[in-house]
Amino acid sequence: MTSPGQIFYDSHMHTPLCKHALGEPEEYAEVGKARGLKGIIMTCHSPMPHAFSHAVRMAPSQFDDYVSLVQRATKAFSDTDFEVKLGMESDWFPGMEDWLKDLHQRAEFHYILGSVHYHIPEYREDFWKGDAMEFQRGYFRHLAETAESGLFDSISHPDLVKNAFPDTWNHAAVEETVIETLDRIQETGVAMELNTSGIHKALPEMNPGVEMLKLMAERKIPVVLGSDSHQPKRVGAQFDMALDILLNAGYEEVSFFHERRRQSLPIRDVLASLQD
Fold first, then answer.
1. Structural domains of the chain, with CATH
2. Residue 276 — pLDDT band, cuts 50, 70, 90?
3. Cβ partners under 8 Å of residue 79, min gap 6
């Protein structure tokens, strides 16, 4: 098969402003370019008010610094055929909707990921009541609320909660709730992410797993691919594996966002475009 050239994007990665990532945006871009990508979308963790989850995100006062970091990398690659775009990974949490609505209007974003992070202290304090199954079901219901908020283009790592229970996780036990969640997300038109970083987590498989991906494919929920890179070497890593997983799950296309509008490409074309 003849390579179609650089056509695809890695749509999830971070900067040192989140306090748990290494490397500058330019370094992420260099790796993405070497791996045959058309571009990367920086999606560092959103600032939140009142020191919410402050240990793993930029402070509100650093938002302009974040935009400037990405703009610097965009300019550095402006004379090449590689693109560096501005995005953000924003936490959905009850009561934060107005904050996020205003935040998302403060810059010209290409892509906004919505995340439910079960492990942050504020989430566990509000929703962990000692019942593991109810905690998992509540997490999936929150994914549906994230999509229904209208604040996000895509939902990130949508079965992340399985890493809280790697030894006892059982998709079948929560499948009824997952199906209800996916039916609600389907109604919104919001995309969902296949996150390749899951292979490095407590339960080493991509997020979501194959069972959930097949249910998503049945509902024709669009999928965006993201490495969730917290260091440059992870950009585009395992994308060939992820694309094969999508094909086997029943998908024929994979998406990315430009100016908050979704675009889709044939998976086989994307596979042909990537470099080892």
1. 9-273 (3.20.20.140)
2. low
3. none
